[in-house]
Amino acid sequence: MQTYGIPLRYYVDSLRILRFVQGRDSVWRKHVLQTDDVDTQWRKMMRVLGVDVPYALSPQAKGKVERPYRWLQDRIVRTCFLDKISTLEHARSVLRDEVHRYNSHQVHSTTKEIPNIRFGKAKTAGNSLFRPFSLRKPYASPEDVFCLRLSRRVNGYRRISLFKHRIQVPNAPLREYVDLHLVPDTLKQITRIRIWHNDQVLHSVSIPPKGLSVHL
After folding, report:
1. Residue 16 forms part of a structural domain
2. One-character DSSP codes across 97-112
3. Closest to 209 (Cα-Cα) out of 179, 178, 187
4. Are residues 201 and 148 in the same domain?
């Protein structure tokens, strides 16, 4: 989204990381939460960006996505077989090459144009529904948008508990909930946390990723 812009609408299926569906994702026995009563981490991010999310109820409903996906999948499998590729690393390289060729070189059978060229023309003519990426107030960093979100209640000592870590939060209101924005950094082996309350950053801290468990 930072590269190509923010879309008006993101049409997806009901994969569990995209949508909460009661009876499939939930352990609630008495149906405390119904379908769509809770947002997944991905859906929370879409709300922050202002992107509408309709859900397809069958693969046939989003055939424009399924057809090229199936075509790419078949082509990648055959290419890997012919080139005797047997590792994921090499298969990912084939995938990248095929996606690049599909988007930048192949003439689409319906539009009779190369997809990237057609997309570029639409943006130039102002016919695209993509809008430039920008941060909405009060956020000042992309890490407050592209992150995992949790909430915790501040105790009487202005501390919160997070995966067995006790975190001191200066100036936090006692016994009220604060919002946590978590960004795992696999290279540095840390998780950066920004703690928010009433649209203000109260504190920033980093903790080891060990024990981190967030329901998507």
Report:
1. no
2. HHHHHHHHTPPPTTTS
3. 187
4. yes
> Is residue 193, in this structure, part of any structural domain at all?
yes
Structural domain range at position 172? 142-207
- Asked if 74 contacts 33 with a C-beta cutoff of 8 angstroms, the reply is no
Domain membership of residue 168 (yes or no) is yes
Radius of gyration (C-alpha) of the chain in whole angstroms: 22
Asked whether the predicted pLDDT for residue 161 surpasses 70, the reply is yes
pLDDT averaged over the chain? 88
- Per residue in 164-192, is it b (16+ CB within 10 Å) or e — as a string? ebebebeebeeeeebbbbbbeeeeeeebb
Lowest-confidence segment of 39-53, 54-68, 93-107 by average pLDDT: 54-68
Tokens encoding 210: 């060990």
Q: So what's the pLDDT on residue 172?
A: 92
Residue 53: closest CA among 88, 81, 18, 87: 18
- State residue 158's pLDDT score: 94
What's the pLDDT tens digit per position in 105-133? 999 888 899 999 999 999 899 888 899 99
How many distinct structural domains can be found in the chain? 2
Q: In this structure, are 81 and 121 located in the same domain?
A: yes
